From TrEMBL:
It comes from the Bacteria. This is Protein BatD. The keyword Signal applies. Keywords: Membrane, Signal, Transmembrane, Transmembrane helix. It comes from Flagellimonas pelagia. The chain crosses the membrane at residues 454-472.
């Protein structure tokens, strides 16, 4: 009997120990690094996965020396319950491209889980010479590489200075994959060019070919460039990150192809064009830099008017070319006409072939005297890149006649010189004697000393002394009111961060977006942290670490919750006003404690 009892106790102990070991194994934290391959060619990609079985913070990847990160980190989380047991997995994935040949070590990655720091084991990778895998199994990234191409098509490789050059960016996509989204990584700045974007309103897929293979393409961007410098000019590349769905060899339950999403960075590549300078031979003296094909005219609103009336003289250039990049010629008007500064008008549209339209300078002219005033013909020169020659146009000569008005002094002098000169015979007394009795009197001298102004300036400082004492005591009393000053400062602080929300009271979406932004900006200014990247739990932990009252923390978090709920629930004007008042009160209380 004793032996049976001992066996039972031994069995129970073993069961207890095994259960404890299983529970300990369930709670054990694992953090591993997995490589897609340990040997690869320099033209192949390496996938590195950092996987953990519990969620953590402050993940720090290795430096990836001798490798270039072409994608990542991408994050995936898996969580499930099987027979009452929860399984969790979180993975950070990087896609690397080797930059040299040799044996390289991928160092440790670190992460903090439940207050403890965990590290992965370093692993060694061998990078060999480039490999040729035409018949090998292709990865998802290999398919994406072959199926996506960004091309910059330039209309002219050898334009003249200030001649229009059109750049069209086309994304070629293989029919085997589908693009879900894209985002620009680096937009070209077009140095040494005057640039004008042509908006692409609709991205319509069209059929085409790339390197002799059928592709679909979409025009993503159009831009017109006018080179401002001659010589070799570089057009910087456009870089995009493309998100695509790539088919795999796996099938779902119904036999359909399973797709995998990946991303790829594509670039249009650098393009260099050779800009030719404008020829010096035959360049007109009045040439101002106009390049294109233009028409030129000078017209007036009237050619007969009276003095003090006004007329409009219009200098107009129309056609196709760099209309915004040169100055219009100025008419040569007689100096006796009053001319005001011109009003500049533009009616220009930018197409894929360049700028088209017209530019006009309107001069207001007001004659002051009667007469005839000629406006002589003026020249306008431009360079036509189609013919490679300069063209000079001349405006018509215009005569303006002022019919009624005063005659100018120049006309009077001209008229006087044509008449006979006559002697002037003086009349009356020709000599006048000076007065001998000037009737002079004594000069009165006013003395400042002893006057009313003297005594007023003398006693004025004495009268200002009591006023200065009163002002000083008032300021001293205001400075001693510490509580009142803190309240005023807190109110000003709340108004500063909530001013945008106050302007949008009544507009639910705009109000709560501005309110949430104001709350985050307040913490950002006070704590020097980016709270928009934190959850409400982390913000609560930070405020607790700053010894903030629990009630004030709950009020702050409650306001953030209201901002989130407002996107999905109807809110009234009264509720918005209450949340605004509560936000002012919470910021005031937090400011006293922080």
């Amino acid at each position: 009997m004793k032996r049976l009892r001992g066996n039972i106790l031994l069995f129970l102990a073993m069961v207890f120990l095994s259960g404890s070991m299983v529970h300990a194994q369930d709670d054990e934290v694992t953090f591993t690094m997995n490589l897609s391959k340990e040997k690869l060619g320099i033209n192949e990609r390496l996938r590195v996965d950092f996987t953990m079985n519990k969620d953590g913070d402050n993940f720090t990847p290795p430096a990836f020396e001798n490798f270039k990160v072409v994608m990542g980190p991408s994050q995936s989380i898996s969580s499930s319950w099987i027979n009452g047991k929860r399984t969790f997995s979180k993975t950070y994935t990087y896609i690397l491209l080797p930059t040299a040949r040799g044996n390289f070590t991928i160092q440790q990655a670190t992460i903090e889980i439940a207050g403890e720091t965990y590290k992965t084991t370093p692993k060694t990778v061998e990078v060999t010479a480039a490999v040729d895998r035409p018949n090998g199994e292709k990865t998802v990234d290999d398919v994406a590489d072959e199926s996506l191409h960004l091309v910059a098509e330039v209309s002219k490789d050898n334009p003249y200075l200030n001649e229009a050059v059109t750049v069209v960016y086309k994304l070629y996509v293989s029919p085997d994959i589908s693009v879900t989204n894209y985002r620009p990584l680096d937009n070209p700045t077009y140095n040494n060019f005057w640039s004008q974007d042509i908006p692409v309103t609709k991205h319509t897929a069209q059929n085409g070919t790339y390197e002799g293979k059928p592709f679909r393409y979409v025009v993503l961007k159009r831009v017109v460039l006018y080179p401002q410098k001659s010589g070799q000019l570089e057009i910087e590349p456009l870089s995009l990150e493309i998100f695509v769905d790539v088919p795999t060899n796996r099938r779902d339950f119904f036999g359909g192809r399973i797709y995998t999403q990946t991303s790829k960075t594509v670039s249009a590549g650098n393009r260099t064009i050779n800009v030719k300078p404008l020829p010096e031979a035959g360049k007109p003296v009045d040439f101002s830099g106009a390049v294109g094909d233009f028409e030129f005219s000078v017209t007036t609103s009237k050619d007969q008017l009276n003095a003090s009336e006004s007329l409009q003289a219009k200098v107009e250039i129309s056609g196709k070319g760099n209309l915004k990049l040169f100055q219009l010629p100025k008419p040569e008007l007689p100096s006796s006409l009053e001319v005001y500064d011109p009003e500049h008008e533009e009616d220009i549209n930018t197409y894929s072939t360049g700028m088209e339209g017209k530019v006009v300078d309107n001069y207001t002219i007001v004659p002051s005297f009667r007469g005839k005033y000629p406006i002589p013909s003026i020249p306008f020169s431009y360079f036509n890149p189609a013919t490679g020659k300069y063209v000079t146009l001349h405006s018509d000569e215009i005569n303006i006649e002022v019919m009624e008005g005063p005659v100018s002094s120049a006309d009077n002098l001209a008229t006087g010189s044509s008449t006979n000169k006559q002697l002037v015979v003086p009349t009356g007394k020709q000599f006048h004697f000076l007065k001998l009795n000037p009737n002079l009197g004594p000069l009165k001298i006013s003395c400042f000393f002893g006057s009313k102004a003297f005594y007023m300036w003398l006693f004025l400082p004495l009268l200002l002394i009591p006023l200065a004492i009163l002002v000083f005591k008032k300021r001293e009393a205001m400075a001693s009111d510490v509580i009142g000053n803190k309240i005023k400062q807190a109110n000003r602080l709340a108004k500063k961060y909530l001013s945008a929300a106050k302007r949008d009271l009544g507009n639910k979406e705009a109000f709560y977006v501005a309110l949430e932004k104001g709350l985050h900006n307040y913490l950002k200014a006070k704590l020097n942290i980016e709270t928009t990247e934190f959850s409400k739990e982390k913000i609560t932990g930070i405020l607790k670490g700053k010894q903030v009252d629990q009630e004030d923390i709950q009020g702050f978090i409650g306001l953030l919750t209201s901002c989130e709920m407002a996107r999905y629930s109807p809110y009234t004007q009264v509720q918005m006003q209450n949340d605004y008042d509560k936000a002012s009160e919470v910021i005031s209380k937090l400011d006293k404690q922080l």
